[in-house]
Write a structure and sequence with these properties.
There is one protein chain. The longest helix is centred in the middle third of the chain and has 6 residues. 38% of the residues are buried. The protein is mainly beta and 343 residues long.
Length: 343
């Protein structure tokens, strides 16, 4: 079971009463998360969410289906995992509807690598005496979700964009929902036809036993060090069930390309512990220093420029904050001149 993947079951038809859906089960303990379509007289009316911890049911929620989805006929239940919770979708006739968004991190933290390895993904059914169900299939996939934000090019160390296989590569925050549910997506496109394509997800490992869905990242390939590097915003701190983690900027690195499939980059602190967001960094060869543009909370998120002798810090402020709100910060070279852009 991957708590950053999407799981779905395609129910062709059902008879009688019962439940059909998905189970995420601890193979070493009596712990599980269950999401099911609940049917009565061959018609589905609700999506049920149940969490069992140490053999005890600790949460049960029923999400009613709107009239357009309830009733008999083919349905697809989609459980889109969000590291600390899930989006619950139901699809009928090609139309997908969000019906619920429960969290489970207060009961079990599936970001823990040891738990992640123990959990398994199962098809689950509980049927009445005359109940039956025809299932077309159950699958697990990586998917981008229902919303994208924080678009930023993958670059080289000088800020120039990365082109590979005749495609431009970029990062976007993906999956709808409040923080800390989104995660870091990777996309590519051929700029001549704008055939945007989802390529994968990036997770971050701080060496504390958890994998993180941090986001609003900038990733670059440092050709001198022959290493993939970058920075990300520690929004996963909001998923801490004990609320002890602090939001901060993290430096990330990997010897392998993080641009396809499910990738993991090592993360380390850079000393920017506060309400910072959207870091982007370039090597400025004219002054032989690293320059980071990001936004900081100064009665609103406002752009600031910082500078360091080393790529992973420490970074000292050299300009800003500007007067206007300015998120989505990035440095771009246009006509041989560098500009600080923001939204």
């Amino acid at each position: 079971c991957n708590p950053f993947a999407t799981y779905e079951v395609d129910v062709h038809r059902c008879n009688g009463s019962g439940e059909v859906g998905l189970m995420f089960r601890d193979s070493a303990a009596d712990q599980r998360i269950v999401a099911t379509l609940v049917m009565k007289d061959a018609a589905c009316r609700v999506v049920r969410w149940v969490v069992v911890r140490n053999g005890q049911e600790v949460e049960r929620r029923d999400f009613p289906l709107p009239e357009t989805l309830s009733g008999p006929g083919p349905l697809r239940l989609r459980v889109q995992m969000l590291a600390v919770g899930a989006n619950l979708f139901v699809e009928r006739s090609g139309v997908t509807t969000l019906v619920g968004r429960p969290d489970f991190v207060k009961h079990m933290d599936l970001r823990r690598k040891d738990l992640m390895r123990r959990y398994e993904f199962c098809l689950h059914a509980v049927l009445g005496v005359q109940g039956s169900a025809v299932i077309n299939g159950a699958t697990s996939v990586l998917s981008p979700g229902i919303g994208q934000a924080d678009i930023r090019n993958v670059t080289y160390e000088d800020g120039s964009p990365v082109f590979r296989d005749k495609r431009l590569w970029m990062l976007m925050t993906v999956r709808g929902g409040k923080l800390p549910h989104p995660m870091q997506g990777v996309f590519s496109l051929d700029p001549s036809v704008f055939d945007i394509r989802f390529e994968g997800l990036i997770l971050y490992d701080r060496g504390d036993g958890l994998l993180r869905n941090d986001l609003a990242s900038h990733i670059f390939y440092d050709r001198r060090a022959k290493e993939w590097r970058g920075f990300t915003t520690g929004f996963s701190a909001y998923g801490d069930p004990e609320k002890k983690e602090k939001k901060q900027i993290w430096a990330v690195r990997s010897s392998r390309s993080p641009l396809g499939g499910l990738s993991i980059m090592r993360a380390q602190p850079v000393g920017l512990v506060a309400d910072y967001e959207d870091p982007q960094c370039i090597w400025d060869a004219t002054v032989r220093k690293w320059r980071m543009l990001l936004c900081e909370n100064h009665q609103g998120y406002k752009a600031v420029m910082r500078e360091s002798e080393e790529w992973d810090g420490p970074y000292e402020r050299i300009a800003g904050p500007v007067e206007v709100n300015s998120t989505g910060t990035q440095i771009q070279t246009i006509g041989g001149k560098r500009y600080a852009l923001f939204g």
